[in-house]
Amino acid sequence: MKSVEKTQKNLTIKQVALSARKEIKRRRRESEKIHIPNDIVEEIMVKLPVKSLMRFQTVSKHWRTLIRSRDFEERHMALEKSKGCKLLFVCDDDFKERMKDTLFLKTVTLEKTSASVGDEEALEFEGFQNFFEISESCDGLVCFYDIQKAVEVINPATTMFIELPLSRIQQLCIYNPNREVELELEPVQDPNPVPEPIRSFSQFGFGKDSVYGRYKLVWLYNTSPTTTPTCEVLDLEVKKWRFVNTTTLDHHKILFNERPVFANGSLYWLTGDEEGHPTTQTKLIVFDMHTEMFQVIPTPPFITREPSGGKISICNLDGRLCISELKGDCKQEFWWRVEDNTWERIFSVDLHSTSTWFGGITSQPLTPLTISRVTNKVILSLRYQDNLVALDLDPNSSVFHLYFSGYYGLVCPYFPSFALSH
Q1: Which of 15, 75, 335, 364 is deepest in the core (most CB within 10 A)?
Q2: What is the pTM of this model?
């Protein structure tokens, strides 16, 4: 009996010793682990590309919550902006052979010597067999749109997208009474009824309320030669089109061949004549994305007195409103808007020097897309032409070279972000 008790006691001692050794080993392993504070992890992750962060959301619930937080999104966006702009192309290596209803998006980075193709995504969207437009990019989002097709808001970096309801002008153009299609529209208070929708000219804008950070889409369109243009606005968080007051436009019409520009919290359009054609009385229509109020202002004083609207061009160049005028000697001057009434001359271009790459065209203004901070070159485009040209901004240089060739004709400045990921 004593021997049994002694055996059991020895077993108990061995078990306690074994358990103690296991605990020592466990504590040793724990002590050998590297514990990285959460703030250090966040500092590392915020510098990673969007594609990597999309995968890392599956690692843990904590990482997913961190990556999807608005603060992280804003910090990541600010860092991407600081790296310099990329270019987003809608194209294919052989556009004629592309898959039906498929959009091919290519991202091109600005490097020292040439254009470098980065990521390529094939995004499929129904109904884009015919011609369509691409909006400016706002926080890494772009809109594909057509007057007879629902707008798609797309994040190329995450491949997420939203299809929006048809605006009033789109519904009218799709179900034109001349096509013998009955139209049943929701009753709305249309301030300027469209008599002939298929002849009404519209321009689509996309931007952001700088106060509340809400993305908004804007359709501004000429209704008739005798009435004020009509404006519809959609807040991306509400996803419903509504009319806004345009009485301050005082019968000013938008120019038909110049799309609006978003900069510094406002959308800008150039005015045209009663039919939307270029005029010698060109002004700027300004729409505040926060207050949703319009105003009409004169073009800057450096623009030639009573110039033709067809020779004036506006764009967003690295976050600021840029306006230019094509002079009679085929020289185009570009200016930045520094403050409300303050402008800074950036550079000028002799279109005789660039016409070689643009089919000999010297009668249409060029559009600057972005400036490379590394090479100090500005990338110039001509709408619906296949080439991009780089100009050295060194004051002592007038060197141009072919920067990129052979795309479909739709391109915009862009940087990847997490917008729409929530």
Answers
A1: 335
A2: 0.83
